[in-house]
Amino acid sequence: MKSESVPSDWSALLALQRATHATLQVLAAELADLDLTPSEINALANLADGRARTVSELGAAAGTRPTTLTSVLDRLERRGHVTRGTRPGDRRAVLVELTPSGRRTAATIRRAVTGLERRALAGLPDEAVVALRNALNALTEVSS
Hints:
Elements: H1 12-30, H2 38-47, E1 53-54, H3 55-62, H4 66-78, E2 82-87, E3 90-98, H5 100-121, H6 126-140
Antiparallel strand pairs: 1-3, 2-3
């Protein structure tokens, strides 16, 4: 679908990349006191609902390969924000859970993310926000 109002040299992917970098810079500034990397912030934000996840589930939610996520989880575990254990009935699945410190940190991150999203999208009509969500989901679902 091609819109008449979209310039032919405009790229949704490049715009998404610019938006990602801009939002990461704002979040890094707002969350500087936490001394976390963007990957650590992403992992904790995806655990903020308090539900334990396997490494594979967390990787899918965070958009990160489980092998890449392992080093992120190592650092978060050393800092006391997460624990890893086995899933009852499946000793092969590693279950990641927030500690009390992790819950507090994740809540701080979620508030920052929610605030930034509200500020960024405040001027858009509801239909545009729904369209944005649909477009981002479509880009996320792209397979190589």
